[in-house]
Here is the input.
Amino acid sequence: MIEFHNITKTYQKNWTALDNINFNVQKGSFTFIVGPSGSGKSTLLKLIYAALTPDLGFVRIGEFRNPGITTDKIPQLRRKVGVIFQDFRLMQDRTVYENISFVLLVTGTPRRIIKDKVAQVLAELSLTHKLHHYPFQLSGGEQQKIAIARALVRNPFVLVADEPTGNIDPQGSEEIFKLLQKINAGGTTVIMATHDSSFLQKASAYRMIALDHGKVIKDVPPPPSKG
Ligand SMILES: Nc1ncnc2c1ncn2[C@@H]1O[C@H](COP(=O)(O)OP(=O)(O)OP(=O)(O)O)[C@@H](O)[C@H]1O
Ligand SMILES: [Mg+2]
Here is the structure.
């Protein structure tokens, strides 16, 4: 469903961030992208949501292709690829409700449907009571859950997480990871980049692609039971 084919990405003349990357990600799978700082994890993820264009090769994301996707199709791609970041990227001057509903509102979804969708996704995350709170009134873990809710409300087929636990304490990190597992169990493909070594042990139950200096140095399939 997601395919990296001979991907090379260079930022500057002598700096190759990704060097001939090849792999496929199956629909409904959970994949860890691991590797030290600067190994190319964020660059790889940016190619999935078309924030960057490869220099060589192509990435297939469902029906989309990068390069090849036209500017007018990028919003369609972004609707189907949910992205969450280390720094949450919530709108600080908007409530939880406003943060989650924003994209639905601008894409013309009727208000009644928006209300139902937001209520449903917050109930799933047990955060209904935070509906009218602002991000600064929430813990890091709660803010990340709201960022996840904002992605999920658009029914993405893949959720891309770039160091989602990077700014969260260990207990909160564990909760976020459990939530991502639950989302994956519901059928959404999850791709999570981390350099947090405490995840390496957990990664043993999942597909793990290890990068170093822009190359895939390991690609470990999950044990058969996890598919
Ligand atoms: N906009 C940019 N301009 C120039 N070089 C860049 C740019 N973004 C990233 N790089 C370089 O590309 C390489 C890969 O960066 P990338 O952000 O993908 O690494 P990463 O694995 O996500 O690291 P981290 O764990 O610190 O987030 C690094 O050497 C980085 O310095
Ligand atoms: Mg990064």
In short: The mean pLDDT is 94.
